[in-house]
Amino acid sequence: MNGKKGSNSVKIDISLISNASVPPPEAAKDAGAGGRSLQPSRKWIRDVWEFAREDTDRVKFAFKVGLAVLLTALLILFRAPYEVFGTNIIWSIITVAIMFEYTVGATFNRGFNRALGSIVAGIFAIVAIQIGLSSGHIAEPYVIGLSIFLVGAATSFMKLLPSLVPYEYGFRVALFTYCLIVVSGYRMGNPIRTSMDRLYSIAIGGLIAVLVNVLIFPIWAGEQLHKELVACFSSVADSLEECVRKYLRDDGSGDAEFSKKVLDDFPDEPAFKKCRATLNTSAKLESLAVSANWEPPHGRFRHFFYPWSEYVKVGAVLRHCAYEVMALHGCLHSEIQAPYNLRCTFQPEILDATNQAAELIRSLAKDISNMSRRSLHTNLLKRVHSSTERLQRSIDVHSYLLTSSTHDPRRTFLPSC
């Protein structure tokens, strides 16, 4: 920096090293944008990896579907089967893609609906084609069009009947198969041969889907249902203990920002998440029970007509317990809270009752998991009743604390949850 004495201006000379280079603004902007664009990709890959690690059966299912589709595609890639069935063999791939489900029971259920719908549609299609051929060349398209309208209206109405709701997919398959067989048979000629080839192709695809799903890393709906119910028991016990620990902890309920804080943290707490997951298992348990009814005896479930519906009933009772825990969790986020010292007064009795109840729930979960035929847990039930009675007696003995005039009446309220 050079400056002349007595001058009002200052001259500044800045010299840069000749080898140094400054990237243009556009390049810096592009580099920053590229780095930001890679972050969502890495996060997505990490999420997919965690999703696969959470349940390895998902990866097995994906590979099984790929294998089944490959085996079906070989019927087209090899000349011999392609010369027998022609382009109709593509129906095997469609059948595998539609019929292959996550569990064996769901695949059997979907396969039964697929087979029944295809057979019924094939029979009606052959009858409609014969009627169209006998009615003459001019009346044939009108007969086929009328039959498509009647079949579409009948199947759409029947699948709405409450007693036929479980076979809703079968009615869709029947309508889909009937329309394609009738229309393609009318245009391609020799409709009966076309119908039979397509039914054979559907049977081949269904057989490949069943064999791959059953013989290669089978995923049984019964086992999934069993594990899901046990997990629900554990979630309820963990949520109960978490709520009580939070209630007995000095969480700063006397602060002015307490109300806002608890409302913000409400959906992120582990107890709330576990209870919500248990309450949302109703549809999943029912779906797994329906699929398990289609499965043959397997693994630990070696009896025909296994009472899978009882799992759904136990899950319904367990959800009532989860509702009670959810109500307790709601008390933790109430604006009116008991003082911390008042909670400490009843802490031993509250912890004892909580531990006894959680132990009973976990014991039931263990028995269900091990499928052990033990007697009723009368000792645990008696201990739960005794602990609740001790808590009630403690409240009666210290009832004067609940009506003390030395405290703000809004702050001395003891939650009854």
TrEMBL record:
Family annotation (InterPro entries): ALMT (IPR020966)
Pfam families: ALMT
Keyword terms of this UniProt record: Ion channel, Ion transport, Membrane, Transmembrane, Transmembrane helix, Transport
Signal sequence range: none
Listed name of the protein: Aluminum-activated malate transporter 9-like
High-level lineage: Eukaryota, Viridiplantae, Streptophyta, Embryophyta, Tracheophyta
GO biological process terms, semicolon-separated: malate transport; monoatomic ion transmembrane transport
Transmembrane segments: 61-82, 88-108, 115-133, 169-187, 199-220
Gene Ontology terms: cellular component: membrane
Family statement drawn from the similarity comment of this UniProt entry: Belongs to the aromatic acid exporter (TC 2.A.85) family.
